[in-house]
Automatic annotation (TrEMBL):
The keyword Secreted applies. Its main location: secreted. Gene3D superfamilies: TolB, C-terminal domain (2.120.10.30). This is Major royal jelly protein. It comes from Micromonospora olivasterospora.
Length: 173
């Protein structure tokens, strides 16, 4: 199976599942809240302390409102991690539920887990063999300079940050 985020700033977001053996594909989590950008009233994306804006050819600049974008699969293949680009949250969903075409959308959605705050807006996700997920950051104060390759957030999915549970790989001032 392959999984693709269906990103949009104006239409419904979701996850596209592709059966590589048959070539068949189908959509899951269609317009599900976990695939959508956070409302602009609660989150305004920024890069290096400056507003992250779309600049349409036919209009004025506006804050980015892109939904599901970042994607990574767990080391054991049981969970698909994803996040909207314009959001501080990241989520996971059971891959067996995504792959089962007989399940209703509600049953698939019941396997979605809110994995918590990813430390700012970002879309770069990767997992390692030990089950940790790394999240690339872009919401940084200008004084920190260009965003590093990773926020350094390295934790096992499903565990909430707490003392000793999240490690910062970059200096915070």
């Amino acid at each position: 199976m392959a999984y693709i985020t269906d990103s949009s700033d104006s239409g419904p977001n979701g996850i596209v599942v592709v059966d590589l053996a048959s070539g068949a594909s189908w959509r899951r989590l269609h317009d599900h809240p976990s695939t959508k950008a956070e409302p602009l009233s609660t989150y305004r994306p920024s890069v290096e302390g400056r507003p992250f804006l779309e600049r349409p050819a036919d209009g004025a600049p506006k804050p980015l409102s892109m939904g599901s974008d970042g994607i990574a699969i767990s080391a054991d293949g049981s969970r698909l991690h994803y996040c909207p680009l314009a959001s501080r949250r990241w989520y996971s969903v059971a891959t067996d539920a995504l792959a089962d075409r007989d399940l209703t959308e509600d049953l698939v959605a019941a396997t979605v887990a809110d994995e918590g705050d990813k430390g700012g807006g970002s879309d770069g996700l990767e997992t390692d063999d030990s089950g940790r997920i790394r999240i690339r950051g872009r919401d940084r104060p200008a004084r920190d300079g260009p965003a590093p390759a990773s926020t350094g957030l390295s934790r096992r999915p499903g565990r909430r940050p707490g003392p000793g549970r999240a490690r910062a790989g970059s200096r915070r001032r």
